[in-house]
Amino acid sequence: MAAFSRGRHRLKLLGRLSCQTSTRRFTGKFDYDLVVIGGGSGGLACSKEAAQFGQKVAVLDYVEPSVKGTKWGLGGTCVNVGCIPKKLMHQSALLGTAVKDARKYGWNISGPVTHDWTVMAEAVQNHVKSLNWGHRVQLQDKKVKYFNMKGSLVDEHTIRGLTARGKEMTLTAKNILIATGGRPKFPTQVPGAMEHGITSDDVFWLKQSPGKTLVVGASYVALECGGFLTGIGLDATVMVRSIALRGFDQQMAGLVTDYMEAYGTKFAWKCVPRKVEKLPSGSLEVTWTDLNSDQDHQDQFDTVLWAVGRAPETKTLNLDKVGVQLNPETGKIVVAPDEATSVPNVYAIGDIAEGRPELTPTAIKAGKLLARRLAGQSDELMNYNNVATTVFTPLEYGCVGLSEEEAERRHGKDNIEVYHAFYKPLEFTVAERDASQCYIKVICQREGNKPIIGLHFTGPNAGEVIQGFALGFQCGFTYSHLLDTIGIHPTCAEELTKIHITKRSGQDATVTGC
Ligand code: FAD
Ligand code: NDP
């Protein structure tokens, strides 16, 4: 997780910006103060904020259809093929569990409860389309010019736009922002992967149920998709080549996958896919190797969903010609703390930028702050440290700060105190649900007043819980601040304010009583 540091990062940038502007080759007036390439989370936020400060702004957004031909509207990954449809499908899955609980709570639900993919998908897609429309209206209201065009750089002040029908346009701008995000990768070394598989660019737009699904990958996207597919009653297997949720606290990752397994998701641990073949029946036959035994296995699936990471969307931007430096390993754009690229007047934010979290709120905040700096309204830099996040798996996992492994690495095992608790959400009791994986971990430094350096929570509404505590984190709270906070009873989040058993003590961490 992100480096541990606090406080606002400010830099006197204004002098530097005006210095950059003076190096420009153009002396005449530009068409725009700012042209943004990419109308996703970061690009839209930046363009609207800049317009608010009186800048003349244009946004170019263009969606290259997925390999399977799926396409969508304005708003980028989050709105169309990410956070929003994912969270709604996750909600659909949670409701399935809630219906089961409901019987215990006195609801008469006669007959089997079944799920209809088509109804869910249509409702989700309609909501997404309303957001696409909303973004267009907002741009119009804020007087940001929107072009449904693929953008590329001609030079540091000139952008070429190309429509799907091949119509070209050239714009000039004082500043250019690249916010083109990324797209899912395919494992090209696996025969049949691209031909027969889908990715997160497709799954939310399927008209028919994906049926029995193999999800390959073990990070956010794989676990979230595997989780909601199981939750709506499908046969879902997650294939993990190494560990789940790399970079996260591994004890917490284990709880997340244990819960998923207990609730029906199958896991193929330490397995790698070898090939995908389409059978005459239309089923997909997948061959994989179990790395433990070195044995090959086969099974048939209706759908194979690749969730093996994302590639930055730079191919068509012409960046090498203009000299925008990329990280050769990741292909992402190298950026300075003020989001500047190696080329003056050209900036990059969001998923396309090297070393940034691939999360919507960071892209949005970075975009807004950049707009304010470019408009000469502020010199505040984006603080990428201690960004809270949540994995929307069937048992949600939210965290902020360091994992236990990272805390030990940075501070030494003897210099940290880990408080922990296994708790039972009240709503699980009447429903007689197993709460073995509902767990809280607070990691503090042992010295001084025990500053908190990591906070982890698995349980219902983890995102809501962690969002609140992230504020404390940002304010530099300590273990005693946590204990001084009066809980709200009866909630899951209150367990954080009562946490008192240390791992070091070896005591049973199960919360008992009210
Ligand atoms: P994007 O939102 O990807 O926008 C880039 C836009 O630029 C796209 O519209 C693209 O089509 C367009 N574009 C690309 N090239 C060009 C070009 N040459 N010309 C014109 N336009 C171009 N984050 C969270 O915080 N919470 C979540 O719950 C969450 N869930 C996710 C679930 C999934 C399945 C995925 C895949 C991602 C999820 N994310 C989540 C991550 C989040 O969606 C991204 O971090 C965020 O969208 C990045 O914003 P961005 O502005 O950098 O790029
Ligand atoms: P990640 O890059 O985080 O993870 C890729 C996963 O695929 C890893 O488990 C990796 O395993 C595995 N993998 C890679 N190549 C192969 C292969 N050839 N065969 C088998 N497995 C492979 O990608 P995601 O797409 O899951 O997520 C991208 C980003 O999107 C995240 O980092 C996150 O920031 C954002 N996101 C945020 C969400 C949220 O906020 N809730 C939800 C979804 C996405 P290994 O560890 O072995 O390399």
TrEMBL record:
Cofactor(s) listed: FAD
GO biological process entries: cell redox homeostasis; cellular response to oxidative stress; glutathione metabolic process
Gene Ontology CC: cytosol; mitochondrion
Top enzyme category: oxidoreductase
Domain of life: Eukaryota
Enzyme Commission code: 1.8.1.9
Pfam families attached to this UniProt entry: Pyr_redox_2, Pyr_redox_dim
SUPFAM superfamilies with a match to the protein in the record: FAD/NAD(P)-binding domain (SSF51905), FAD/NAD-linked reductases, dimerisation (C-terminal) domain (SSF55424)
InterPro entries for this protein: FAD/NAD-bd_sf (IPR036188), FAD/NAD-binding_dom (IPR023753), FAD/NAD-linked_Rdtase_dimer_sf (IPR016156), GSHR/TRXR-like (IPR046952), Pyr_nuc-diS_OxRdtase (IPR001100), Pyr_nucl-diS_OxRdtase_dimer (IPR004099), Pyr_OxRdtase_I_AS (IPR012999), Thioredoxin/glutathione_Rdtase (IPR006338)
Domain Pyridine nucleotide-disulphide oxidoreductase dimerisation: 387-498
Membrane-spanning ranges: none
Record carries keyword NADP: yes
Cofactor details (free text): Binds 1 FAD per subunit.
Secreted as UniProt keyword: no
Residues engaged in binding FAD: K87, G151, D351
NCBIfam families the UniProt entry points to: TGR
Protein name: thioredoxin-disulfide reductase (NADPH)
Organism of this sequence: Chanos chanos
Gene expressing this chain: txnrd2.2
